[in-house]
Amino acid sequence: MDKLQIVGGKPLNGEIAVSGAKNAALPILCAGLLTSGDVELSNVPRLHDVKTILRLLEQTGLKVVQDDENVTLNGANITSLEAPYELVKTMRASILVLGPLLARFGEAKVSLPGGCAIGSRPVDQHIKGLRQMGAEITIEGGYIYAKAKKLKGARILTDMITVTGTENLLMAATLAEGETILENAAREPEVTDLANLLVAMGAKIDGIGTDRLVIQGVNELHGAKHAVISDRIEAATFLCAVAATGGDILLTNTRTDIFDVALDKLREVGLQLEVGTNRGTNTIRARMDARPQAVSFRTTEYPGFPTDMQAQFMAVNTIAAGPSRVTETIFENRFMHVQEMNRLGAAISTEGNTAFIKGVERLVGAQVMATDLRASASLVIAAMAAQGTTLIDRIYHLDRGYDRMEVKLSKVGADIVRIK
Ligand SMILES: CC(=O)N[C@H]1[C@@H](OP(=O)(O)OP(=O)(O)OC[C@H]2O[C@@H](n3ccc(=O)[nH]c3=O)[C@H](O)[C@@H]2O)O[C@H](CO)[C@@H](O)[C@@H]1O
Ligand SMILES: C=C(OP(=O)(O)O)C(=O)O
User: Fold this and answer.
1) What's the CA-to-centroid distance between 373 and ligand 2, angstroms?
2) Number of H helices, E strands in the chain
3) For residue range 295-319, what is the model confidence (pLDDT) as tens digits?
4) CB of 164 closer than 6 A to ligand 1?
5) What residues contact 132, with CB distance under 8 A and at least 6 apart?
6) Which atom of ligand 2 is nearest to the CA of 23?
7) Which fold does the domain 22-227 belong to in CATH?
8) Which of 108, 113, 152, 375 makes the best surface tag, with the fewest CB within 10 Å?
9) Where are the domains of the chain?
10) Ligand 2 atom at minimum distance from 22 CA
């Protein structure tokens, strides 16, 4: 199993190109199942999760032609309507094939994803919405069996805001008969990116970017071209890294309009930010030459503070001036990095879903274990800020969602190597 070895205390200086967003690419790749036309995608990140979803999609008969960050999909010859446990268990987002397969082919068999390290993460809202659209759904032997000759438009109000739930129902609704209204829809930029692709494929969707999506079903969708939106979480992770280590970096291929809250918090931390524009994307120059200031926050759905940035900001808080308080409201078990950061000398205690952090003068390198994707990223940040050497085990979590993170960081001065 690969490990990362990091020698801390090196400031970051130079340029980093931000990749396409994992959480946009995954639903967008699944949208290839909705049409027999070519869906030509660019800015697709090189991630383990993308490989997994492409394997799953190829297994259905979807044709995939990949040239680095460009992927063309063709769904003219779908032969299997099944997502097996072996693939779904490694990546929860596999559930995103359910809506498209059912809507276009009237049938799907998809393994239940099961829980994961950060929480139990049920998919009851996906199922509730599809049932409201007339699907007959049974669950047996760990599989969801869904059937519907033709899905029918419905007004669906999910019990909570769910990102992949909204995406699954949105994709299903594009090919349903009549009008579907998704109330309480997730407004994450990645949902908007998917909706924009669907519109380019001929879908009729109003309210994009709001919590009320109104979809008029069409008989079929056609091929389209689309560039996946830039990854706001990857970008903000690098900004936290420079806030923790000091230095001067320039991020390219980013979009600052989609992560205002994180940028505001980073300014509070003391990061000096300058936003520029370059061929339709933004650049962000970030400079840090002082000890970070501690910031408190509470995670919420977009446009609030993203849960996917909670751990990385906590890493900055561990060495910041002053105490801070971090409350996680989206997932019930997303503090597993706390114990590992404490192994590096951090002073964090938790009470329920709130962590209390006392900023310490310094962290010291140690052996730690990555427990989930963003926890891994937070340990990389903490290790880069620590004195001495840190060894991070189980970094396969990191590879799921970051495009060659150690390569990007070592190019800007981090002492970080992958040990095979
Ligand atoms: C691939 C992808 O896009 N992953 C993101 C997506 O995950 P994902 O879409 O899985 O997260 P959701 O928005 O669905 O989950 C939000 C909350 O709702 C609960 N819930 C959700 C659906 C459901 O049917 N029943 C239910 O109880 C979940 O357990 C969780 O507590 O949004 C999360 C919240 O922004 C992010 O952390 C993930 O990075
Ligand atoms: C929790 C995450 O991803 P996933 O939903 O794919 O597990 C994440 O991206 O931080």
Assistant:
1) 7
2) 14, 24
3) 999 999 999 999 999 999 999 999 9
4) yes
5) 154, 155, 156
6) 9
7) UDP-n-acetylglucosamine1-carboxyvinyl-transferase; Chain (3.65.10)
8) 152
9) 3-18+230-419, 22-227
10) 9
